[in-house]
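Render this sequence as a predicted structure.
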Amino acid sequence: MRLGIALISTVLVGLLTTMLWFVIARPVKVLPRGEQFPPFALTDQRGSRLLDSDLRGRMVFVSLMHRRCGEECAEQTRRLLELRKVLQSSGRLGSEVIFLTITLDPVHDTPADLSALAGELGVDPQSWRFVTGDPREIKMIVGGGLGVYYTEPDENGKLYAERRTFLIDPSGVIRTSYPAEGPPLEIALRDIDLIAREMSSQGAMRFVYEASHLFVCYPE
């Protein structure tokens, strides 16, 4: 009896010690798990159908823009292009990370318009998809799924949007978002590495990562 009590006490002390160590040391950092990215069926700049399931298996930076965005999107676009260039140089673009831009002006932005925008930015459709679709579906994805409020554009293409960029993991889960001006390069690369290490973990490390989520071991 005493041996059983001693064994249980030892296990409990071990668990409490482990918990305390995780809380204080936070040995493995993780990005929080948000909601699943909303399902969709939209049309890209080539006129091809794009489903949310087509994005699985890779990380996706999801941005919200439109063809007539102009200066309002300039800094966000600059940062995304900077990130894309670094990912391309490191061999991670396309195979590990891709980009998706959802137009906030689907009535005006046809696939041809989005193709022209992609051409101006010098990006290829394999690694960066620009999508449009039914305005109601766009509203449901952006407003309902991502929680981003935006207004209809005026005759000059001006609209108000709580503009953000989202990072989706390979399983389609929203992991973080960045402010209107886009993701800072160092932060974006850090977040990519955090997700990559977590998604590739095996064996005992899987439990370590789950514990990191349990104890909210998030980066500063």
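Summary. The first strand starts at residue 41 and ends at 44. Residues 41-183 form a domain with the Glutaredoxin fold (CATH 3.40.30.10).
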